[in-house]
Amino acid sequence: AAGTVPRRRPPRSDMGRELTLLLLPLALLAAPARAEGGTAAAEEVKIEVLHLPETCSPKSKKGDLLNAHYDGFLASDGSKFYCSRTQNEGHPKWFVLGVGQVIKGLDIAMMNMCPGEKRKVTIPPSLAYGQQGYAQGKIPPNATLIFEIELYAVNKGPRSVEAFNQIDKDGDKKLSELEISHYLKEEFARDGKKRHPSAHDEILADIFKKNDHDRDGFISAKEYNVYQHDEL
């Protein structure tokens, strides 16, 4: 819809959102195509810390699952083009940091941020929507953006080493259909939500469709590890 940060794909169903939190990359906020030109290296994100809590732990890093509210403004005239509090019944947004689910400038701006921290960040066009802009989101070409961000939670992302090892029962560094099936059953039992009987099989098939890139019937550590953790 107009006035929102664009998604890379249409909103997912409830089942799809559950799957997202289990294994697939979150798609709450997607980055546009990268800006053309070679100016990105010369431009930087400007960060102003508005509030820093006394306890600052853990600090956010690449691959972490963050929960935050933020408002987006055009630097040129101060007009607001996005407000997370008006989306999804006002719930804070969940997304994984540093993997391209948000524009490059936000991935940079929210690194080393702690729960409860508030920041005002200025993002140049080359790290936002570039020369093309984003008309549907009311963002003109070559727009410098300002975001006011409040971070609520920093959690280990769905592609963490801990999650992989939890699923990989036999320790062979690859995930079989049986292992993931068992993991899904455990997760479904844990949250207690009612699901259609076909949900398990559909989610399992979708996981392999989107993650088993070499189609060998397993999800390897490399295929699973889209967030480039060094431990796997």
Automatic annotation (TrEMBL):
Catalytic reactions of this protein: [protein]-peptidylproline (omega=180) = [protein]-peptidylproline (omega=0)
Family matches, as Gene3D superfamilies: 3.10.50.40, EF-hand
Signal peptide: 1-35
InterPro entries noted in UniProt: EF-hand-dom_pair, EF_Hand_1_Ca_BS, EF_hand_dom, PPIase_dom_sf, PPIase_FKBP, PPIase_FKBP_dom
Domain spans labelled PPIase FKBP-type: 63-155
GO molecular function, one term: peptidyl-prolyl cis-trans isomerase activity
GO cellular component term of the entry, any: endoplasmic reticulum
EC number: 5.2.1.8
Pfam families associated with the record: EF-hand_7, FKBP_C
UniProt keyword annotations, A-Z: Calcium, Endoplasmic reticulum, Glycoprotein, Isomerase, Metal-binding, Repeat, Rotamase, Signal
Enzyme category, top tier: isomerase
Domain of life: Eukaryota
Domain EF-hand intervals: 155-190, 199-232
Name of protein: peptidylprolyl isomerase
Species of the source: Agelaius phoeniceus (Red-winged blackbird)
